[in-house]
């Protein structure tokens, strides 16, 4: 249990138990026993993580109270693109060929640059075993869910290869109002094709090529009379060469290309096209990195690379292209008879649009005894302005309001003023004189790890993330029709802080327990100041009297729970070929929306009360190659009209066949 190996945190293989950073691993055993289909289902059961439904039903993840737009998601070392309003749909990732998921918490831009402001989720796919083999799985369940996947693999001395296909269909569901024409999630279907080929050219040269293609089609319903379809197509290709020059010096060269293409349309009852939208994003990234062992316990890692990124969208004022060269350096060394581990590094990121970024990191871990260690880390993270925050140029044809990215304001606002559409500016300062700068964070993590016996590990950590220059929308001007013109500004400063704890206990070879807890505070610093000064007022209902609110009535950021809890029990009966598990997750109340219109979440606003989700599963192996599983996700059937990511009880049956 203590020999788990992680590569994401340092770009080198390290024992998780010796790492000076805050990180965790979800291994293949837990993935298989939990019978989860998509990445979102798996992450929702982990300490310090929670999945939420964002714009359009996109399921994204929070980490230490940080939003999805601040978390970098990777597959086999390369980033995923294609965010909707900043949120990346983690359910685009199927789990059928995933070996483990590595999670690094806190600012990680010192190695990974943009988007790693809050942490990293790294999905690592399975590598083939010796020989040739194949496997297939089918799962069918409630809400018209059907999942079929298959994978073939081959491995010999010099080369290996895998090919996998996953197909998923969902009938959709509705937990909202019964008389609403819209479902919470409309019916959809998707499939994923992934492959990997590895060839060992010589003792010191290895070549790996991998690719992935994802396609989704979903019903698109806007009203009783407006119906259509939406689709997503995503592909990525990665070529990697590893070269061993000497026993101490190794180099990796990598070229990554990916593209994300989303489209949707609506037709009226007559069949005529009523609306059509599309978004295309592409990324190219060459990188070279080297590792050099100064001594067996002192390692240097250095890398150089560049990203070339483009986006195409009708609502953009132009078709932007980003160029961002970068370089990083990291030192990882052990001192005092390997009791003290020092990890330090920095990364430089240039950019053709915004100012360069320098992202440092420092982490220490000290092994006091065989059973006790402490660690502390400080890191800087940043997130650059997104395409939409720079180039968006959208006017609502029905209501008449306008949203402009910063770059779009440079030309569009003067045009509106010149043609007489603009009524007045609403900001004292010139809205054209404040260019957007990257959001940034300084993260602190302090941890204590105790291993009283080899089969039991406990962890306690305190964390704080100070985030500055958060990008938000503000009304900058008003039209003569009375509607506002909105743009993006660096206006907010927030913090998230809390305590988290984990426990893993292998009671015996057949019984494992695991659990975790997080206490979280996530607040806006400006709001705290205004509440403390008595500047905020509210009322419990539209007809109630207005009250002055104090700082104790300020709850914090939306969609954050102060308390989160998870627990898991895994039990095996080897002689029967049976394994079973029970898993639970709990989140306490959280704020949904500002109902008294004072711009902040206070105790008089609308909340979702705390709830618990129970999942159960049992499986039996027949004739070594066949496995039949029965289970129920959300076994007690919890639903809430405003908790859109929980459809209700999902009972299922799963059959697996394996030839290796």
Molecular structure report:
The chain is mainly beta and 660 residues long. Helices cover 6% and strands 59% of the residues. The chain contains six helices and 40 strands. The strands form seven sheets. The protein has a 22-stranded antiparallel beta barrel. Strands 3-8-9-6-7 form a five-stranded mixed sheet. A hairpin with a 5-residue loop joins strand 4 (49-53) and strand 5.
Tag the structure with descriptive keywords:
mainly beta
Q: Gyration radius, to the nearest Å?
A: 26 Å
Shape: globular
What share of residues are in beta strands?
over 45%
Structural class: mainly beta
Report the strand count: 40
The main pleated sheet reads as: 22 strands, antiparallel, barrel
In the predicted model, the low-confidence regions spanning at least 5 consecutive residues are none
Counting H and I runs of at least 4 residues, what is the number of helices? 6
In angstroms, what separates the terminal alpha carbons?
A: 24 Å
How would you state the average pLDDT, rounded?
Answer: 91
Helix share bin: under 10%
């Amino acid at each position: 249990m203590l020999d788990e190996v992680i590569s994401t945190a340092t770009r080198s293989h390290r024992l998780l138990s010796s790492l000076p950073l805050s990180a965790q691993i979800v291994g293949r055993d837990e993935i298989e026993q939990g019978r989860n289909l998509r990445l979102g289902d798996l992450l929702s059961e982990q300490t310090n993580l929670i999945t939420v439904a964002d714009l359009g039903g996109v399921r994204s993840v929070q980490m230490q109270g940080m939003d999805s737009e601040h978390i970098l998601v990777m597959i086999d070392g390369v980033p995923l693109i294609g965010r909707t309003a900043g949120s990346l749909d983690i359910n685009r990732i199927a789990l059928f060929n995933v070996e483990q998921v590595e999670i690094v918490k806190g600012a990680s831009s010192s190695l990974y640059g943009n988007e790693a402001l809050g942490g990293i989720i790294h999905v690592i796919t399975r590598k083939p075993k010796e020989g040739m083999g194949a496997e297939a799985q089918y799962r069918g369940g409630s809400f018209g869910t059907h999942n079929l996947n298959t994978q073939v693999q081959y491995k010999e001395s010099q080369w290996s290869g895998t090919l996998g296909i996953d197909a998923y269909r969902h009938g959709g569901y509705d937990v909202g109002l019964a008389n609403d024409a819209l479902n919470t999630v409309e019916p959809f279907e998707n499939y994923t094709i992934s492959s990997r080929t590895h060839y060992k050219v010589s003792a010191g040269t290895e070549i790996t090529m991998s690719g992935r293609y994802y396609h989704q089609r979903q019903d698109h319903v806007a009203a009783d009379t407006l119906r259509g379809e939406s689709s997503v197509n995503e592909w990525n290709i990665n070529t990697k060469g590893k070269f061993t020059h000497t026993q101490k010096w190794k180099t990796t060269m990598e070229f990554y290309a990916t593209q994300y293409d989303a489209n949707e349309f609506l037709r009226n009852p007559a069949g005529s096209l009523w609306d059509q939208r599309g978004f295309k994003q592409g990324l190219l990234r060459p990188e070279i990195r080297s590792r050099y062992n100064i001594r067996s316990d002192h390692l240097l890692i250095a890398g150089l690379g560049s990203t070339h990124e483009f986006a195409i969208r009708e609502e953009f004022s132009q078709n932007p292209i980003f160029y961002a060269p970068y370089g990083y350096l990291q030192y990882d060394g052990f001192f005092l008879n390997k009791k003290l581990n020092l990890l330090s590094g920095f990364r430089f990121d240039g950019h053709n649009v915004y100012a360069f970024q320098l992202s440092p990191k420092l982490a220490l871990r000290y092994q006091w005894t065989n059973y006790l260690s402490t660690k502390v880390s400080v890191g800087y993270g940043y997130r650059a302005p997104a395409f939409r925050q720079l180039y968006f140029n959208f006017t609502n044809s029905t209501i008449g309001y306008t949203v402009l990215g910063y770059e779009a304001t440079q030309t569009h606002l003067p045009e509106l003023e010149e043609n007489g559409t603009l009524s007045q500016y609403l900001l004292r300062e010139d809205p054209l004189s404040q260019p957007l700068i990257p959001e940034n964070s300084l993260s602190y993590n302090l941890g204590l790890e105790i291993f009283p016996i080899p089969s039991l590990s406990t962890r306690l950590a305190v964390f704080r993330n100070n985030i500055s220059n958060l990008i938000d929308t503000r009304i900058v001007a008003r039209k003569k029709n009375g509607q506002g013109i909105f743009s993006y500004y660096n206006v907010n400063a927030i913090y998230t802080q809390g305590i988290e704890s984990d426990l893993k206990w292998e009671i015996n070879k057949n019984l494992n327990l695991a659990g975790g807890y997080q206490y979280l505070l996530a607040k806006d610093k400006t709001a705290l100041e205004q509440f403390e000064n008595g500047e905020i007022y509210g009322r419990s209902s539209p007809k109630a009297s207005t009250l002055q609110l104090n700082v104790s009535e300020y709850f914090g950021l939306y969609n954050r729970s102060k308390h989160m809890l998870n627990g898991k029990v895994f039990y095996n009966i080897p002689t029967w070929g049976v394994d079973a598990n029970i898993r639970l997750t709990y989140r306490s109340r959280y704020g949904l929306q500002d109902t008294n219109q004072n711009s902040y979440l206070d105790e008089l606003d609308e909340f979702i009360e705390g709830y618990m989700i129970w999942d159960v599963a049992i499986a039996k192996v027949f004739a070594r190659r066949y496995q039949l599983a029965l289970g129920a996700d959300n076994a007690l059937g919890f639903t809430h009209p405003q908790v859109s990511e929980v459809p209700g009880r999902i009972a299922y049956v799963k059959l697996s066949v394996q030839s290796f």
